[in-house]
UniProtKB/TrEMBL annotation:
Residues 29-200 form the Isochorismatase-like domain. It comes from Helianthus annuus. The lineage of its organism: Eukaryota, Viridiplantae, Streptophyta, Embryophyta, Tracheophyta. One of its GO terms (molecular function) is nicotinamidase activity. Pfam families: Isochorismatase (PF00857). Keywords: Hydrolase. The keyword Glycosyltransferase does not apply. CDD domains: cysteine_hydrolases. Its EC number is 3.5.1.19. This is Nicotinamidase. It comes from the Eukaryota. Belongs to the isochorismatase family.
Length: 244
């Protein structure tokens, strides 16, 4: 009897239809980068950083850099969420991570140049969901205002983790769009190669208190599947061109 690979079986039973997406100059499009910071992406940078080199994480950073350069050359809006927590305020079930003022909560070296670009907005958040993390004490929302002020019609989303912070942000954004809170936003596109998640095998989880098993390839697929199910487009590749 031939053994069936769990990932292959998952992709067969719940496939994710990906498409080629062309971003046209005539459609106001913005880029959202979710938590591409040292504490999640740089080898050995913290409790939730990769423990060994990870090709998927490296590919995600490379694709995010490529997109960022295009958007900055065109002076199109870019919003970068940076996970940033105050000491003593844990985010269960995860250990302390990305503390305010630490190297962990900074953009990865390949993207730090974004902080000097006039079209880039940096938003530090203290929760999984960037939409919720954009809320101010006066009831306003930095992300909502950013969408409205820039008349954004399409959002292109990249970052980490696909099944956690990326997914939570995408789901909230789509729900807000459906309720009419984000005019003129129409489409949310998740770029699969521009997203990644972490790998925490069962053997490691078994030895760590309160830890959950998190197989990278399976959870990447599930994150994309759930985003698709909420109404996002999943892009396998992204190109740019004039509107015909």
């Amino acid at each position: 009897m031939v053994a069936v690979n769990a990932v292959d079986l998952l992709k067969k039973e719940i496939p994710v239809e990906e498409e080629s997406v062309c971003i046209h100059d005539g459609v106001i499009t913005a880029l959202v980068l979710v938590d591409i910071i040292n504490g999640f992406c740089t080898l050995g940078a913290g409790n939730l950083a990769p423990r060994e080199p990870n090709d998927k994480m490296l590919e995600m950073i490379e694709e995010a850099v490529k997109l960022s350069k295009v958007f900055c050359e065109k002076k199109w809006p870019v919003l970068a969420f940076l996970d940033t927590h105050q000491p003593g305020k844990l985010e269960h079930p995860y250990p302390s991570h990305c503390l305010a003022g630490s190297h962990e909560s900074d953009l990865v070296p390949a993207l730090q140049w974004l902080e000097k670009e006039s079209n880039v907005t940096i938003r530090r958040k203290d929760c999984y969901d960037g939409y919720i993390g954009s809320m101010e004490e006066d009831g306003s929302n930095v992300f909502v205002d950013w969408v409205k002020n820039n008349n954004i019609q399409t959002l292109l989303v990249a970052g980490v983790c696909t099944d956690i912070c990326v997914l939570d942000f995408v789901c909230s954004t789509l729900s807000a769009r459906n309720r009419g809170f984000l005019p003129p936003l129409k489409d949310v596109v998740v770029y699969s190669r521009g997203c990644a998640t972490f790998d925490f095998p069962e053997s490691a989880a078994r030895e760590t208190k309160d830890a959950l098993t998190h197989p990278q390839e399976i959870m990447q697929h599930m994150g994309l599947y759930m985003a698709k199910g909420r109404g996002a487009k999943i892009a396998k590749d992204v190109s740019f061109g004039a509107l015909k």
